[in-house]
Amino acid sequence: MWKKSIATLAIVGGALLAVSLPAMSTAAKGKPAAKETKDGREDCYACHEEVKALKEGSKHAKLACDVCHSKLKEHLADSETKPGTVIDQALCGKCHKDQVESFFKVNYDSQARKEKGIPTGRSPMMDKLLAPYGFTIEHNEPRGHAFMVTDQFVVDRFAGGRFQYKNGWTDVDKAGNTWDILKDNGPDFKMAETAKAGNPTCIQCKTSDHILKWKFMGDKDPKAQWDRTSDVIAVAKETNHVVGCIHCHDPHGTQPRVVRDALIQGIEKGSKMFAGKDGKTDLKVISFRDGFRKIGVMQKADGRLMCAQCHVEYACGKGFEFSTGNPVGYDDQRTNHFPLTGPKELLEHYKKTQNFYDFKHAVTGARLVKLQHPEAETFAGSVHDKAGVTCKDCHMPVLKNKQGKAFTSHMVIKPKDHVKEACLRCHPKFTAEQKLYQITAIQNYSKGKMRKAEYWLGQLIDTYATAKRMGVGEDVLAKAREKHEEAHVLWEWWTAENSDGFHNPDLARDTLTHSIAASKAGVKILNDAMEPKKEAAPAK
Predict the structure, then answer these.
(1) In 10 A of CB 317, how many CB atoms?
(2) Does residue 251 contact residue 68 with C-beta atoms inside 8 Å?
(3) Which candidate, 46, 63, 65, 52, places its Cα nearest to that of 25?
(4) Class of residue 357 by CB neighbours under 10 A (exposed 0-12, middle 13-18, buried 19+)
(5) CB 359 within 8 A of CB 319
(6) What is d(CA 308, CA 298) in angstroms, rounded to the nearest whole number?
(7) N or C: which end of the chain has fewer CB within 10 A?
(8) Which pLDDT score is estimated for 539?
(9) What's the Cα-to-Cα distance from 120 to each of 116, 151, 185, 452, rounded to whole Å?
């Protein structure tokens, strides 16, 4: 009886799909209708109409469901028995060998454990300017995607040093399954000068392993194994692969897509950051299991959107409300949020729209936002963005394999280390030496402004401490704290963003000089308030 009901639903559902969801399918247009394939897929389509819309007529149309899924017979007999789903990139590598091999290729130009907060790092004054936040424990520059899980788990701020390489430092360039590389020293293990600041939401950018076990936005649900409040160690121990092919390519139909929930939510709420000239974003949001999860499918690959699943500023940790000072915990959806806005609007967004900040500064008590890695927002509106360039054009160049066949590299290069591949395709009149010189000039200039912004933030912090000791009133201190909050966001955006200003040189200069000006204004407020007290002080 139930099989007849499913068949009836499939016929009705298919008709409704054709009438009401014409935009859902992104299969290649103009091709003749595919011949019916007798491999059992029709049984799956009876309940999974959205999968049929993606798959039929696509490049993956010939693949049977059991290529990626196991226990299908058991699932068809009892829907509560979930089928197995292969997440490992190795499966995709059977057909896309060059792409997967390049993904796991080690880029030795990108150093491991390169701490930002040291004299030669991106932010030499980080410990002072971020005190007492956990990122002061260890905050490294990123390297290739092949290491994004292991790099997160071994960092000193994640789990108290509990997770380490099985074979010590010789494993630092080893790529593969997480727990083939790392060992767990146990719950009682704690290294000196470490923190336990990991959270489940952050892991969702590093891996695709939990995509079917995590409800949209990480909300609690009996059907979800993990949510924002889950034990982060338990989530980590179930994380075996770095972000997979399925983050950006739909496995059913190969359409370009995004899966990161906070990005989809931001676009659904009206963000125009990735919109075209018509003001629209090429993203069709498809809901699965009554909204349990969603994906966004594109007609044409947009590297800006696909990379913005992770390379954005976002809130994923606990914090506090600006208005009340009350704590904001992982049960609150504000701990999984993409602002999708620029640096000059960000503080206002967190103050007014989200009412959320990350921590108070140890000296001034200023309510500070901890920036992540806002590459997508920085690139938006830049010269290259306006010219139609996307992330993959510079970071994922087209290469040729040993047989001379062209493929898109998935190693994600740093353009300055591969100028010929990244730059000269669009700038053939220049030599690699010239383009590298130009890139370096932009970065040198931007880093100079970053250092000056840090210096003046340090001056503001030191002057605040002096003013407080001298008994300057709270009304003046509050004004100085506001300047600190403003200057901090405009500075840290650029230590968190990983291009050293190259993605948008004009924006870097504009915001960093505004940071310097805000810090100087705060220093002046405090100095003006201290001057009468200095004059009134008895001579020694």
Answers:
(1) 19
(2) yes
(3) 52
(4) buried
(5) yes
(6) 14
(7) C
(8) 67
(9) 8, 20, 32, 15
**32-47 average pLDDT score:** 77
Helix, strand, coil proportions of the chain in percent (round to 5)?
45, 10, 50
Instruction: Find residue 296's DSSP bridge partners.
Output: 258, 285
| DSSP secondary structure, 200-232, as one string | HHHHTTT-STTTTTB-GGG---TT-SB-TTS-H
**Backbone φ, ψ for residue 320 (5° rounding):** -145, 160
Q: What is the pTM of this model?
A: 0.90
The mean pLDDT of 288-302, rounded to a whole number, is 93
Is 90 exceeded by the pLDDT of residue 198?
Answer: yes
The answer to whether the CB of 240 falls within 8 A of the CB of 247 is: no
CB 58 within 8 A of CB 28: yes
Q: Which residue has the tokens 């009886």?
A: 1
For the chain, what is the total number of helices (H) and then of strands (E)? Answer: 21, 13
Q: Which residues pair with 257 in a beta bridge?
A: 297
> If DSSP codes are grouped into helix, strand and coil, which group holds residue 320?
strand
CA angle centred on 305, ends 301 and 309, rounded to 5° = 125
Q: What is the pLDDT of residue 532?
A: 87
Evaluated on CA atoms 473, 479, 480, 485, the torsion sign reads: positive
Taking a C-beta distance cutoff of 8 angstroms, is the pair 343, 489 a contact? yes
168-189 residue pLDDT tens: 999 999 999 999 999 999 999 9
**Cα angle vertex 497, ends 368, 418, to 5°?**
170
**Dihedral in degrees, nearest 10, Cα atoms 369, 374, 380, 382:** 100
Helix (H, G, I), strand (E, B) or coil at 297: strand
Compute φ and ψ for 70, nearest 5 degrees. Answer: -115, 170
Residue 117 and residue 127 in contact, taking contact as beta carbons nearer than 8 Å: yes
Task: Find the helix or strand (DSSP H, E) in which 409 lies.
Answer: none
Q: Tell me the CB-side half-sphere exposure of residue 313, using CA atoms within 13 A.
A: 26
Tell me the H-state helices in 84-199.
89-93, 97-103, 126-129, 148-154, 178-181
| Partners of residue 367 on adjacent β-strands | 360
The pair of three-digit structure tokens given for residue 307, joined into one six-digit string: 């990379």
Q: Residue 415 has which token pair?
A: 């353009």
- pLDDT(30) > 70: no
Determine the Cα–Cα distance for residues 167 and 180; give it in Å rounded to an integer: 10
Task: Kindly indicate the confidence band of residue 540, based on its pLDDT and cuts at 50, 70 and 90.
Answer: low
* Mean pLDDT of the region 401-415: 93
Residues recorded for the chain: 540
Q: Is 509 exposed, middle or buried (0-12, 13-18, 19+ CB in 10 A)?
A: middle
- Closest CA relative to residue 377, chosen from 405, 400, 344: 344
| Strand ordering across the sheet containing 293-297 | 257-258, 293-297, 284-288
**Which residues share a beta bridge with 326?**
none
Give the tokens for residue 247. 């983050």
